[in-house]
Amino acid sequence: MQQHSDDAHHPLFLRTVTGTLPVSAVRGPALAHEHLVLDLDRAGDGGAVLHADPHGPAVTKELAELREEYGLGLVVELTCRGMGRGPHALARISEESGVPVVAATGWYYEPFHPAEVDGADVGELTAALVREIHDGFGDTGIRPGVLGEIGSHGDVPSGPETRVLLASAHAAVATGLSVATHAQLGHGGRAQLELLTGAGLPPHRVSVGHQDLLDAPAVHRELAASGAYVAFDTVGKESYQSDTTRLRLLLALVEAGHADRVLLSCDISRHAYLRSEGGQGYGHLFRSFLPRVRAAGVDEDLIDLMTRRNPLRFLTGADTKES
């Protein structure tokens, strides 16, 4: 059992799968949206999985190597209810790799909702989230440090997705956590943000997901100007979007003065993405994409802002330029 502490609610601390962690201990970059243990297999082909056995050791090895080579300081793991979450496996991966991991609660988008969402109203869903945030995952003693990835698909969330988004906002307000969303192929982010903020959640406690899949610089600027974080979190997934387009969109947002609202990650969500299986791996951001960002003229202070300070500000709710 991990030690619980009121420090989990203090803005200078993160809640990780191995206990509370001072923000000051995170000296290197963070991956703001990843999956280390996951099961989204609906086709029966075993592709959309990252199982503790057999994939856990390869995941652990990658994270340990990134800690050694790039100083990887944190992983925000957004596998939630109905997505094959594995708290014990996350704790083991974190301990063995030496990389702190923040785990999540919430519900993904509607095709992946478990039966518990059906027929439950916003109040019941909120209570379930608050209970898990306070008490932990089952009897593991491991508690979530973020709500995510809260999903919708299309330009407007469905009825069940709306209830889940509202419940997530209420639970976030009640517990002091932040909300990271899944906007399917980048669509629907404005509607998500409207629902979340309409329920009382400040925009700087929201990260709108998968915006690098949406070639719409004006939407990105609008989200950032509202105060929300804009997640470019599928870096390296070339079958969805080229990194060349991602780079153009990122540079446009930075040049518009919104580097302080950018989050970056790779969203590894299939075992074929692991380096051990010939994929780009969790380190694609550091090995491939950030060198291109630097070559485009972005300086090291802005790189640190986007990869370290922003994720920490998002998670803690610190709404300042510096952490």
Automatic annotation (TrEMBL):
Q: To which species is this protein native?
A: Streptomyces niveus (Streptomyces spheroides)
Return the cofactor note field: Binds 2 divalent metal cations per subunit.
Q: Which cofactor does it need?
A: a divalent metal cation
Q: Where does a divalent metal cation 1 bind?
A: 33, 35, 149, 267
Name the UniProt record assigns to this protein: Phosphotriesterase
State the similarity comment: Belongs to the metallo-dependent hydrolases superfamily. Phosphotriesterase family.
Instruction: Name the PANTHER family on file.
Output: PHOSPHOTRIESTERASE-RELATED, PHOSPHOTRIESTERASE-RELATED PROTEIN
Q: What is the lineage of its organism?
A: Bacteria, Bacillati, Actinomycetota, Actinomycetes, Kitasatosporales
Any idea which GO molecular function terms this record carries? hydrolase activity; zinc ion binding
Q: Which PROSITE patterns match?
A: PHOSPHOTRIESTERASE_2
Q: Which residues bind a divalent metal cation 2?
A: 149, 182, 210
Q: In which domain of life is the source organism classified?
A: Bacteria
Provide this UniProt record's keywords sorted from A to Z.
Hydrolase, Metal-binding
